[in-house]
Amino acid sequence: xxxxxxxxxxxxxxxxxxxxxxxxxxxxxxxxxxxxxxxxxxxxxxxxxxxxxxxxxxxxxxxxxxxxxxxxxxxxxxxxxxxxxxxxxxxxxxxxxxxxxxxxxxxxxxxxxxxxxxxxxxxxxxxxxxxxxxxxxxxxxxxxxxxxxxxxxxxxxxxxxxxxxxxxxxxxxxxxxxxxxxxxxxxxxxxxxxxxxxxxxxxxxxxxxxxxxxxxxxxxxxxxxxxxxxxxxxxxxxxxxxxxxxxxxxxxxxxxxxxxxxxxxxxxxxxxxxxxxxxxxxxxxxxxxxxxxxxxxxxxxxxxxxxxxxxxxxxxxxxxxxxxxxxxxxxxxxxxxxxxxxxxxxxxxxxxxxxxxxxxxxxxxxxxxxxxxxxxxxxxxxxxxxxxxxxxxxxxxxxxxxxxxxxxxxxxxxxxxxxxxxxxxxxxxxxxxxxxxxxxxxxxxxxx
Length: 448
Fold this sequence. Notes:
The protein is of the alpha/beta class. It is built from 16 helices and 17 strands. Helix 1 (5-11) packs across helix 2 (25-33) and helix 6 (165-175) runs parallel beside helix 7.
């Protein structure tokens, strides 16, 4: 952040209207300075002040939007070097490369196979985002036809990879609405590629042979008025690429180097002889600090671990994923169905609900807000105490849905049963298993 909270405050309207979500303009300015608020939250800031503040409050690594539709996403926009310092915001894009000399029916088959790689995890849909179309023979018509086909017939975003300007232009004309990433501007074609990207209003990748050349190309393109750049240092050896990724991130965050303040694109498929090794390299790059990784193919055994790693790395460590407090119907429960209670940590919910579905016993699952903590942690923190759980059971309305008065609590929280009995007179508190995988057997043995 280029300005302090006090400097930002001087540019604000000082109305103390509270419409930004905090009571005073000074508090809002402090939030802006620390990256906890967005400038758009203030409805009364002047255009002149907005221009000054937008530049000053811009993240050190520019966010770049790619694609359109359901798989549109952003890369970059990061503000810290290490996730535990705050959080990482925009997950690494996962791409697959395909040659423009592929047969149309083979492309159809590939797109269908790749689109099927979608995984449900803690309520989220994990999937790759991009197809990188690589020019194979300089045939502009074929390149454009495949770019159009991918853009129109799939959800994937596009990376257009071509050295020939005519081929690239044909590809852009065919799929500009999908906001493709153009790869790449080099020292030999920087003027032409820069003009094409600017005229088409699409992001542009920059490829150099070393860091010094990368800075020079970046400066030249930003001087031409381009803002949405993606960097490729040119390294294709693992150690050097790792060093470049860290150097680019540190230069942007620690030294305020605007020339390197952009996300990066990397190519594991050019650095390995098989998909397994590509996945190993991609795993390293997702952690340190690639904006996009490009693979030679998507296969479930390599793709799913990468998507899961990405989910874990780009989850805010200060905000556990949660589900909404309330009563959840698992199957089609009735007035005689069992009632279970647990915390609102999303992983806990999806594991427990999954085991209940697998048991084929329709059930009522009560989810209590414990600020995203798991059962053991919430119990230790006093957020899953017996009186609190009992009060929640009384207020949630489950008594109106069942005839019986039995409730199953997690085995790890067995010690709260006494307090629950005091809070819920007439209810039978049943101690469930500690491990969710034992829920089906527990219900079979204990619920009649």
